[in-house]
Amino acid sequence: MHIFDELDHQLISILREDGRAPVSKIASVLGVSRATVQTRIDRLLDSGAVLGFTLRVRQDYDNRGIRAIMMIEVGGRTTTKVIKFLRGLPELYALHTTNGAWDLVAEIRANSLSDFDRILREVRDVDGIINSETSILLSSV
């Protein structure tokens, strides 16, 4: 397991804001050499501490999609099987384990209400899922 030092934390913070930032710009902000930044990025990726880089789209530029949070209760010892199935659904943007009354939290992204309805049915039909509650995300504040 990778142990983060202060430079790693600063580097990750910059990359979270702009995953496409040039290494030279990051080096300048951090006050280190380009080679140091590249070595740190490579080490973070190789260790699995950083899984990759993603594109973030401003919500007001992508208002076609429907976003929702689904809380999922899993019965018995089927959590691993349920997680494996849910990871295969492309509309589930993120999946998290949690504590409390719900076992899993899924972030759903669908292109239309009919797609949203379909994915809700697919998730609710998974063997092992005994209950769910979904809230559509209306706007970010």
Structure characterization notes:
With 141 residues, the chain is an alpha+beta fold. It folds into two domains: 6-47, Arc Repressor Mutant, subunit A; 59-137, Lrp/AsnC effector binding domain/regulation of amino acid metabolism (RAM) domain (Alpha-Beta Plaits, 2-Layer Sandwich), CATH 3.30.70.920. It is built from five helices and four strands; from the N terminus they run αααβαββαβ. A four-stranded antiparallel beta sheet has the order 2-3-1-4, with helices on one face. A hairpin with a 6-residue loop joins strand 2 and strand 3 (104-110). The radius of gyration is 19 Å and the shape is elongated. The two termini are 36 Å apart. 13% of the residues are buried.
Question: What characteristics describe this protein?
Answer:
alpha+beta; elongated; Alpha-Beta Plaits; single chain; 2 domains; Arc Repressor Mutant, subunit A; four-stranded antiparallel β-sheet
In short:
This protein is an alpha+beta fold and 141 residues long. Helices cover 39% and strands 22% of the residues. It has helices at 6-17, 23-30, 34-47, 79-87, 113-124, and strands at residues 66-74, 92-97, 104-110, 129-137.
Q: Provide the low-confidence segments as ranges.
A: none
SSE succession: HHHEHEEHE
Sum up the overall morphology in one term. Answer: elongated
What is the distance, rounded to the nearest whole angstrom, between the alpha carbons of the first and last residues?
A: 36 Å
Counted by DSSP, the helix tally is 5
Q: What is the name of the CATH class of the largest domain?
A: Alpha Beta
CATH superfamily of the largest domain: Lrp/AsnC effector binding domain/regulation of amino acid metabolism (RAM) domain
Strand order of the largest sheet: 2-3-1-4
Strand content: 15-25%
Name the helicity range: 25-40%
**Total discrete domains:** 2
Radius of gyration: 19 Å
Examine the secondary-structure arrangement and name the CATH architecture of the largest domain. Answer: 2-Layer Sandwich
Largest β-sheet summary:
4 strands, antiparallel
Structural class estimated from helices and strands:
alpha+beta
Counting DSSP E segments of at least 2 residues, the number of strands comes to 4
